[in-house]
């Protein structure tokens, strides 16, 4: 059975909205966005958002949640995703490598069907929403493997239908231009302009111990069960190049240096990791406020 | 200095009084959200039991109690529950997602509360699988105490315990963490689903940080914001204070009046249309409607041991001096004089606002209209006192 992380980082859009409001920021760039649900929250509350990540499925999900203003998955489109379409030939063994290891034969067949159906969707917005909706199914299955008696045994198509229909609720417009891009941190930071830069830096070497629910979905989207996300991070700033302490510190300082034009920089950290970021931010910014709202959450806010 | 403060509500309160006022705040918010206030103690108790079974810290368990009490605070003033034409379903749903965040922000402004309270309210509607709101947090990113509150709210919502159990078990891995569902099921089987009441953790309140007066004023502001009548209670209070002074009401009556002024609008909170918009403050047709609001406001205030003494005043504010009012048909001296002051001041304010907006056909001076009802709807002595107050101020 695959290990699932016992801790999950909390990135709260509502908290970020409060922090941005405190510094009069109406637009924000997040170059390490991950699953951009926090950007979706900010968008819904009238803030222009721009995100970036190196993993393609995060970016695709962002196209559904962040860029997309009005496209939803209607019943007819959901029906075209969740089941095999007559006349289409499906490579049902695409994810056979996961069979008996992580998933059942039926689940692997569905993963193959869904992969093809989503790849055939006609809009980026719908594709993004479908990727997100089906990811909830994958997460459910992996969780159920840990708690077989505690969670309901729901048919794959029913589960997928429920989650895909739920994605509709997050689609909305803020009448502003919002973007996502698949690129490394520095490229995103330097290609965008906004009132604030938000950074939630990954832990050192985090890419080597990525949660199965994250790396597995990238593999699914690439259609390759053997896909190794270390490839995606190989040349990234917070990837292999910053595996040691000094390399990591250098990488963080490089980001701050590239972000010199941003009026506000917000760094989300924890109490334990505060010392990794605070000195660099103090070097880069005249004023640094430390906000500790709840539990282990710490935000460093640097202004000029 | 306001009348309410003059009678001592600006000194540091006992934690019990503070908790009582917070409970009232929660009950008004429950009414705004359409949630029965009777359910709140059960939700708070179950949430605390879940926290204890999960071995959460005492601080979190204490905060959880208050978060349960105040979980609907954000509904006060939320457009989804506002007056007038209902919003389109989708828009209303999006506004409803903001309830936890608005509630959290309001909790942050109530300084005596334990620190984690606000964030437990903020994340009380998050779902384990990441499809909740407002932040779509997922898995262990949701504080366990907030998950406990979500579970308690779900359980208490059902009249049938077996059905509640089945629903919660069926949502394992979706709305609730599987570990937590397992803890809940163990609790359910250990005590047959019967929630053992937990007392309010008074020790967790820092009563030095705010006065009950400040909290009551915040609540009154929120009620007015919810009803779309910002500043109403402050205007009514100003008139009522002067009229009460002119009538030489006793200090006790004036205290109750000050309290009633802050809460009369709570009766209108779950009504789609304000009473003044429906019939006008002087219309006989509006008596039944006004009485309904008066009774609702009195019922809310009766729950409070600290402020409950003002409830009869609220109930009597829709009575007419000639005995043709409602809900009890009281007449002349049987109506508390402070209730007559309240009634006249509310009507005067509605007329004044209406005249200011010039939305009514009748543009006579508000005071003239009040005077026409002297001896029928209003006590003549109160009308004279109000007239004196208005004339002095103009």
Number of strands of chain A: 7
Give the % helix of chain A.
40-55%
The string of secondary-structure elements of chain B, in order, is: HHHHHHHHHHHHHHHHHHH
Overall pLDDT score of chain A: 94
By CATH, the superfamily of the largest domain in chain A comes out as Vaccinia Virus protein VP39
What are the low-pLDDT stretches of chain B, counting only 5+ consecutive residues below 50? Answer: 1-8
Q: How many individual domains of chain A?
A: 2
Q: Provide the domain count of chain B.
A: 2
The tally of helices of chain B reads 19
CATH topology of the largest domain in chain A: Rossmann fold
| CATH class group of the largest domain in chain B | Mainly Alpha
The CATH topology of the largest domain in chain B is Hypothetical protein af1432
Give short descriptive properties of this protein.
heterodimer, A: 304 residues, alpha/beta, Rossmann fold, 12 helices, globular, B: 394 residues, mainly alpha, Hypothetical protein af1432, 2 domains, 19 helices, elongated, disordered N terminus
Account of the protein in words:
The complex is a heterodimer of chains A (304) and B (394). Chain A has helices at residues 13-22, 37-44, 56-67, 75-82, 105-119, 124-146, 156-166, 185-191, 212-222, 230-233, 245-258, 274-284; strands at 27-30, 48-53, 179-182, 196-199, 264-270, 287-291, 297-303. By secondary structure, chain A is of the alpha/beta class. Chain A has two domains: 1-59 and 181-304, Vaccinia Virus protein VP39 (Rossmann fold, 3-Layer(aba) Sandwich); 71-171, no CATH class. In chain A, strands 3-2-1-4-5-7-6 form a seven-stranded mixed sheet, sandwiched between helices. In chain A, helix 1 (13-22) crosses helix 2 and helix 6 (124-146) packs across helix 9. Chain A is globular, with a radius of gyration of 20 Å. Chain B is elongated. Chain B contains 19 helices and no strands. With 394 residues, chain B is mostly helical. Chain B starts with a helix and ends with a helix. Chain B has two domains: 3-204, Hypothetical protein af1432 (Orthogonal Bundle); 229-393, Hypothetical protein af1432 (Orthogonal Bundle), CATH 1.10.3210. The chains are: A alpha/beta (304), B mainly alpha (394).
């Amino acid at each position: 059975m695959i290990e699932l992380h016992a801790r999950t980082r909390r990135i709260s859009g509502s908290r970020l909205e409060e922090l941005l409001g405190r510094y009069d920021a109406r637009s924000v760039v997040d170059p390490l966005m991950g699953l951009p649900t926090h950007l979706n929250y900010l968008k819904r509350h009238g803030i222009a958002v721009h995100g970036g990540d190196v993993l393609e499925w995060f970016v695709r999900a962002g196209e559904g949640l962040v860029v997309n203003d009005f496209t939803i998955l209607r019943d007819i489109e959901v029906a075209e995703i969740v089941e095999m379409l007559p006349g289409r030939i499906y490579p049902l063994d695409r994810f056979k490598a996961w069979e008996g290891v992580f998933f059942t034969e039926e689940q692997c067949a569905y993963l193959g069907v869904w992969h093809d159906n989503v790849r055939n969707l006609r809009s980026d917005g719908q594709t993004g929403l479908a990727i997100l909706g089906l990811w909830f199914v994958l997460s459910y299955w992996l969780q159920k493997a840990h708690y077989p008696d505690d969670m309901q045994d729901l048919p794959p198509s029913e589960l997928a239908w429920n989650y895909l229909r739920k994605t509709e609720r997050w689609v909305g417009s803020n009448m502003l231009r919002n973007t996502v891009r698949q690129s490394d941190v520095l490229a995103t930071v330097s290609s965008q302009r906004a009132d604030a830069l938000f950074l939630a830096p990954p832990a050192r070497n985090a890419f080597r111990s990525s949660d199965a629910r994250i790396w597995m979905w990238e593999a699914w989207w690439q259609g390759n069960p053997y896909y190794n996300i270390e490839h995606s991070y190989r040349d990234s700033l917070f990837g292999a190049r910053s595996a040691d302490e000094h390399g990591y510190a250098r990488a963080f300082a490089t980001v701050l240096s590239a972000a010199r034009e941003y009026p506000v920089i917000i760094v989300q950290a924890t109490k334990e990791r505060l010392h990794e970021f605070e000195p660099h931010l103090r070097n880069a910014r005249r004023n640094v406020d430390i906000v500790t709202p709840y539990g282990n959450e710490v935000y460093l806010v640097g202004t000029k | 200095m306001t009348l309410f403060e003059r009678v001592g509500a600006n000194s540091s309160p006992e934690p019990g009084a503070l908790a009582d006022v917070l409970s009232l705040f929660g009950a008004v918010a429950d009414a705004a959200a359409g949630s029965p206030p009777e359910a709140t103690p059960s939700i708070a108790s179950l949430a605390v039991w879940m926290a204890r079974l999960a071995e959460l810290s005492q601080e979190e368990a204490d905060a959880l109690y208050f978060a349960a009490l105040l979980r609907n605070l954000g509904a006060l003033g939320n457009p989804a529950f506002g007056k007038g034409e209902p919003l389109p379903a989708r828009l209303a749903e999006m506004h409803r997602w903001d309830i936890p965040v608005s509630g959290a922000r309001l909790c942050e402004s109530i300084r005596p509360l334990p620190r984690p309270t606000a964030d437990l309210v903020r994340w009380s509607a998050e779902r384990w699988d990441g499809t909740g709101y407002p932040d779509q947090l997922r898995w262990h990113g949701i504080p366990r105490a907030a998950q406990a509150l979500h579970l308690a709210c779900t359980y208490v919502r059902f009249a049938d315990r077996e059905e509640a159990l089945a629903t919660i078990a069926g949502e394992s891995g979706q709305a609730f963490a599987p570990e937590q569902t397992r803890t809940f099921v163990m609790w359910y089987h250990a005590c047959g689903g019967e929630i053992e009441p937990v007392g309010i953790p008074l020790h967790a309140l820092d009563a030095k940080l705010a006065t009950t007066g400040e909290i009551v004023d915040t609540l009154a502001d929120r009620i007015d914001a919810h009803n779309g009548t910002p500043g109403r209670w402050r205007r009514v209070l100003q008139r009522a204070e002067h009229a009460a002074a002119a009538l030489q009401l006793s200090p006790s009556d004036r205290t109750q009046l000050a309290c009633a002024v802050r809460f009369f609008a709570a009766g209108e909170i779950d009504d789609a249309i304000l009473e003044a918009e429906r019939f006008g403050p002087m219309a006989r047709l509006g008596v039944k409607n006004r009485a309904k609001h008066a009774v609702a406001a009195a019922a809310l205030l009766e729950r409070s041991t600290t402020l409950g003494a003002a409830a009869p005043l609220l109930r009597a504010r829709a009575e007419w001096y000639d005995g043709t009012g409602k809900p009890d048909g009281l007449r002349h001296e049987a109506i508390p004089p402070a209730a007559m002051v309240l009634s006249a001041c509310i009507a005067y304010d509605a007329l004044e606002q209406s005249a200011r907006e010039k939305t009514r056909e009748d543009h006579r001076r508000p005071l003239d209209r009040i005077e026409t009802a002297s001896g029928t709807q209003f006590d003549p002595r109160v009308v004279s006192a109000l007239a004196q107050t208005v004339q002095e101020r103009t």
